[in-house]
Amino acid sequence: xxxxxxxxxxxxxxxxxxxxxxxxxxxxxxxxxxxxxxxxxxxxxxxxxxxxxxxxxxxxxxxxxxxxxxxxxxxxxxxxxxxxxxxxxxxxxxxxxxxxxxxxxxxxxxxxxxxxxxxxxxxxxxxxxxxxxxxxxxxxxxxxxxxxxxxxxxxxxxxxxxxxxxxxxxxxxxxxxxxxxxxxxxxxxxxxxxxxxxxxxxxxxxxxxxxxxxxxxxxxxxxxxxxxxxxxxxxxxxxxxxxxxxxxxxxxxxxxxxxxxxxxxxxxxxxxxxxxxxxxxxxxxxxxxxxxxxxxxxxxxxxxxxxxxxxxxxxxxxxxxxxxxxxxxxxxxxxxxxxxxxxxxxxxxxxxxxxxxxxxxxxxxxxxxxxxxxxxxxxxxxxxxxxxxxxxxxxxxxxxxxxxxxxxxxxxxxxxxxxxxxxxxxxxxxxxx
Length: 433
What we know:
- By secondary structure, the chain is an alpha+beta fold.
- It has helices at 2-10, 34-40, 71-79, 108-113, 119-134, 153-159, 164-174, 188-204, 218-229, 347-350, 352-358, 396-410, 416-427, 429-432, and strands at residues 16-18, 30-31, 59-60, 66-67, 87-89, 93-97, 100-103, 209-212, 233-235, 242-246, 249-255, 258-261, 265-267, 276-289, 302-306, 317-323, 334-341, 363-374, 383-385.
- It is 31% helix and 22% strand.
- The radius of gyration is 22 Å and the shape is globular.
């Protein structure tokens, strides 16, 4: 919502952004001080002395990293919201196999030394990666007999003779699919996802992921600031009493007795329970640790992916870990957040394989959230509703949703270049340099 209000302001629309909370970012806020997190999860008492100063904590409710070459980084660069943020590279990405975790190789040397696969498998995998790197959907000479819109990914793996373990880690740790449904779909999307991973990795070398200092809550604030520069108005602590609809079309929002009139409305599912449908659930467990995660080479940040095959599930389990190095925890403390899509009536049991990797855990905060999606496109009512954040640990699906809402509102595709030009119109070329 904050990104869209920033983009709409740059587009010359008059934007009023209201939030019932006292902080920015709604569901994706970072909670500070630590006392507030205890309150939010109804834990009795206050955090123990050993947790340090409450103000040193900024705990994300929804864990996600940014792909270095991904869509959100592009949005940040084009809108220059980067000037309000500082990023650090996540130190490593790990994948779970047979009860142990292994580093996802980030260089050729690491790939050769990795015990994730045997020697011959490595050669075949390298051939596959070279193929993906050279693949260009606009140049049929790079296809080598594969039809990107017809050949399934399963067949592409077959072509390179890759075994189940390598398929698991490629599909889930590189292409970042949550399930195995992608295997029987055309391979173009998967190849592009692996390309995104490799290109993101090439930028900084340790992992393809970035994370903002002081937590993800900095992102919505950055875009709120962008909106304000372009004349948008932001109101926190603003209770929404009613969305006013006339003849099936939104005309305003009622708050504290007044109506703010509008032609279009963007909101998350929590404001319009009658216009959304439940599409699933996510369990997230925030864990405070006093030690780095075992077998990660004492990294102060990392991601761990547990592919569903390894734990007899349909969806992967993710762990994101960050620490005091990112100004989100007290000195010597680590925050690890495990998340997955719920599949059974006992979600806590489903997420156990991740928690086992984190022991000993000093304190945990468990949340189970319903996932909602809008029941219609909003073209009639002009009410455009975002989807609830899913279990993935990067912002690619969120950015797809932003672009989708943009298209439904504006009737045209969201175009990064167009946005750049709009900014030049306002600031003039010279100041861009």
